[in-house]
Amino acid sequence: MPVPALAAATLPRQLLRDDVYQRLRAAIVDGTLEPDEVVRDQDLTAWLGVSRTPVREALLRLQQAGLVTATPGRSTRVASLDARATRDAQAVVAAVHEVAVRAAVAQLTADDLAAMADANRRFSRALRHGDAEAALAADDELHGIPVRAAGNAAVRDVLEQYTPVLRRVERLRFGSLDARGSVRLHDQLIAACTARDPEAAARASTLTWQTLVPLLDRATGGTL
Q1: How far is residue 215's CA from residue 199's CA, in Å, rounded to a whole number?
Q2: What superfamily does domain 83-219 belong to in CATH?
Q3: What average pLDDT does range 82-90 have in this prediction?
C-alpha cells in the first residue's frame, strides 16, 4: 500500500481504537485506499503512528462492515464495489432511516429543522461546485439530525455499519450535478417534518435513498 503523503499525528489514547477505525474507513470511502488494494499492518501503523493492535482491531471491524476482505494466511484487501453488497446495504439503510424519521418527527425542534434546511443549502451549493466531500458532509449532517432525534441506539449502530458501503459510491455522484434531485427530496423531507407528518416524512426519506439504486447498478457493473 502506498503510504499517503500526510502522516497522521499520534492519536489520543482513550480514543485510539475508534479513531483508527474511522481514519481507515474514511480512507476507503474517499478512495485513498482503492478497491482491491492490499493493505498491510506495517504500512498502516507507520501512516497512523500507532501500534499494530488497534490497526488489526480496525481491520476486523472493517471486514465485518464489508469494506475489506481477508484471506487467512494471506493478504487483506480493500473490498471491491460488489453489486449485491451495495444493494443490500442500500435496502437496509433506506429502511432504517425510515424508522428513524418516523420516530423523530414529533421530537424535532425548531433548531433541528433550521439545521436541516441549512445543511441542504450547503449540500446544494457543494453540488454546484462539484465538491463531493462537502456534499457528503452536508448530507450526513442533514440525515443525522432525525437519527439523533429518534434516540434509537440500534438505528445508529446499523447505520454506522452499512452507510460507509454506500458512501463509496455516493462520492461519484456528489462530485457532479447528477444528485440535484436529492435537494428537492430533502426539501420535501424537511417540509413533512415541519408539518409533523410522519408518513410523508418517511416517504420522502425512502425516496431519497432509493435514488441511489441506478447509481449502484452503474458503479458495480450491472443490476441484480
Answers
A1: 26
A2: GntR ligand-binding domain-like (1.20.120.530)
A3: 86
